[in-house]
Amino acid sequence: MADHRLKPRCATGGTAPRKAVHDRVTLAELPGIALASVAQRAGGAAALAECAQALTGAALPEARRKTGARDALELIWTAPGQWFALAPLADHPDLAADLSARVKGAASVTDQSGGWVCITLSGAGCTALLERLCPLDLGQMQAGMADRTGIAHMNCLVLCDAPGTDYRILGARSSACALWDALDTVASGLDGATGG
Description:
The chain is of the alpha+beta class. It has helices at residues 45-56, 95-103, 126-131, 176-190, and strands spanning 19-21, 26-29, 33-40, 66-68, 74-79, 82-88, 107-111, 116-122, 146-151, 154-162, 166-172. The strands form two sheets. The protein has a six-stranded antiparallel β-sheet with strand order 1-2-8-11-10-9, with helices on one face. It has a five-stranded antiparallel β-sheet with strand order 4-5-6-3-7, covered by helices on one side. The protein is globular, with a radius of gyration of 18 Å. The mean pLDDT is 92.
C-alpha cells in the first residue's frame, strides 16, 4: 500500500508562510485563520444581534466597521445584512458549524476558510504602500474600520488595526501570489524613501 504523506501549503504556495522585511514596511502571510460568511435571514436581526454580543461583547458592526478582538473572534461588515466572522483556526476549527448552531436559523453561515489569504502589513510605510495600490482615504481610516477595495484589479478587504502602521489584507486565495507580488513590489519601491 502506498504511503502518502500530504503536507499543507500556505495560500502563496510554500510550506511556510511568506514574510518580506523592507525598510518601511513588513509583509507577512497569516495562515491558520478560520473565516465564515454570515448572511442575515428575514426576521433574524434580534437573534443575530444577541449572538454578536455573546461572541464579541459588542453589537453587530455597522458599515465599514469590525468588532471583536484580533486574537479571538471578529465580526466584519461586508454588505447590508452580511458579515465575515474571522478567528484563529486553532481556537475555532469548526467556526462555521459553531456559528450556524448558535444563530439557530437567523442567518445563513458558509465556511470560507479555504478561499481567502490574509497578508499583514506593519510599519511606518503602510500608508504610502496602500495609497499607491488602492483608492481608500487612509487618512480617515481609524482602528476598527474595514473597507472593501480593489488592489491591482483584485477585490480585497482592508482591515485597520492601527492607523498608519498595522493593516490586514484579505484577498481571494486563487489570487494570493498576485496579491503578494503587488504588495511586495510597491514595498520594495519604498525602500530608502523618506517621504509618503
